[in-house]
């Protein structure tokens, strides 16, 4: 970061050059200059070398102005407001965003926290739909960025965490992992503009859905919807805010072992159920990869992932019932029996 440190007689906080303010606030340097020169938003001092120096308050204000401009406010109307006034406007904006989304939600609701005001504004747009099958999204919290989310307490216990970042690097990864680990999140969705491949893969390994912009509203809605259970979830005893597709319970090794165990009641139920789970899990993963990589078929693959994931979760429950009846252990540490699944082609 290009940061210039100086000491003010009235304030010992650091001062920043314009490039550092742009990095901290997400506002381009050219825009900051226009806001300063044309609208008088900032009054920077100058260093001995005649470089403009901005305070931490200026950097914070730049971020506040950006959020409000993203929400549709004109810079000419807000450039000269103080930090408290801008903060009150942001609180009202976030309340309006959440109310707009939640007023359009009905049926079974799944709570979701959103990191990124622009993303929350996008979701609140009338043309954006979060209705999928029988479940709806209810936005419970909106945070400006990962730093604010890390310091804040969630109003609810959201099951989905939707995070929007411009750059997905190691620093963002650490913040995301920390945020998810401190809250009972069932599914995290990360949307980014630029990112490091290793970081993207690391988050995927942790079970997060990671997708790169640009995405249409239609694709984003399908991405969010792909983690929701379909109608059959009511027969599993899950409804309301817990109605998300649960993570896979059993490894391929466990399913292979169960498929090779002879049944005491001379039927093939353990083998068939284990094989079905393996096939559904493979198709669920296939659909998710298509959802991540294809822009044309996102809606279809989002639906297919929701259906296959829901079915996989139901058959896992069925496998548990069969295992109890047959006295079969579903532990990964149980002895492995050589067997193979039939071709899934």
Question: What does this entry look like structurally?
Answer:
By secondary structure, the chain is an alpha/beta fold. The protein folds into 3 domains: 15-81, Multidrug-efflux Transporter Regulator, Chain: A, Domain 2 (Orthogonal Bundle); 87-225, Rossmann fold (3-Layer(aba) Sandwich); 245-326, no CATH class. The protein is 47% helix and 14% strand. It has a 5-stranded parallel β-sheet with strand order 5-4-6-7-8, sandwiched between helices. β7 (187-195), α9 (197-205) and β8 form a beta-alpha-beta unit. α3 runs parallel beside α5. The longest helix has 29 residues, at 298-326. It is elongated. The N and C termini lie far apart (52 Å). The model is unreliable at 1-11, 231-242 and 336-345 (pLDDT under 50).
Could you give the order of strands across the largest sheet? 5-4-6-7-8
End-to-end distance: 52 Å
What gross morphology would you assign? elongated
* Total discrete domains: 3
Assign the CATH topology of the largest domain.
Rossmann fold
Q: Which CATH architecture of the largest domain?
A: 3-Layer(aba) Sandwich
Q: How many β-strand runs?
A: 8
Which superfamily, in CATH terms, is the homologous superfamily of the largest domain?
Response regulator
State which percent range the strand residues make up. 5-15%
Question: What keywords describe this structure?
Answer:
345 residues, single chain, 13 helices, 5-stranded parallel β-sheet, Rossmann fold, 8 strands, alpha/beta
């Amino acid at each position: 970061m290009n940061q210039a440190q100086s000491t003010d007689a009235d304030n010992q906080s650091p001062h920043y050059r314009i490039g550092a303010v742009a990095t901290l606030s997400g506002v381009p340097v050219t825009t900051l200059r226009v806001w300063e020169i044309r609208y008088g938003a900032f009054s920077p001092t100058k260093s001995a070398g005649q470089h403009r120096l901005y305070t931490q308050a200026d950097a914070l204000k730049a971020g506040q102005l950006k959020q409000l401009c993203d929400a549709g406010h004109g810079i000419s109307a807000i450039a000269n407001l103080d930090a408290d006034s801008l903060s009150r406007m942001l609180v009202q904006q976030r309340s309006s965003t959440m109310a707009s989304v939640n007023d359009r939600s009905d049926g079974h609701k799944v709570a979701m926290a959103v990191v990124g005001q622009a993303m929350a504004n996008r979701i609140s747009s009338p043309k954006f739909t979060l209705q999928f099958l029988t479940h709806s999204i209810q936005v419970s919290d909106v945070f400006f960025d990962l730093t604010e989310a890390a310091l804040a307490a969630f109003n609810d216990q959201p099951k989905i965490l939707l995070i929007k970042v411009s750059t997905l690097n190691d620093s963002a990864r650490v913040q995301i992992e920390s945020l998810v680990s401190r809250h009972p999140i069932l599914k995290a969705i990360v949307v980014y503009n630029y990112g490091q491949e290793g970081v993207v893969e690391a988050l995927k390994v942790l079970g997060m859905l990671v997708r790169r912009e640009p995405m249409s509203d239609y694709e984003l809605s399908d991405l969010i919807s792909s983690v929701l259970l379909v109608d059959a979830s009511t027969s599993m005893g899950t409804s309301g805010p817990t109605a998300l597709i649960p993570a896979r319970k059993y490894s391929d090794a466990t399913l292979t072992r169960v498929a090779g165990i002879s049944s005491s009641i001379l039927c093939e139920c353990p083998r068939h159920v284990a094989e079905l789970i393996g096939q559904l899990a493979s198709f669920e993963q296939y659909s998710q990869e298509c959802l991540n990589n294809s822009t044309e078929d996102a809606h279809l693959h989002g639906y297919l992932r929701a259906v296959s994931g829901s079915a996989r979760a139901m058959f896992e429950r069925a496998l548990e019932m069969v295992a109890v009846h047959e006295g079969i252990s579903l532990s990964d540490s149980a002895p492995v029996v050589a067997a193979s699944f039939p071709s899934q082609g």
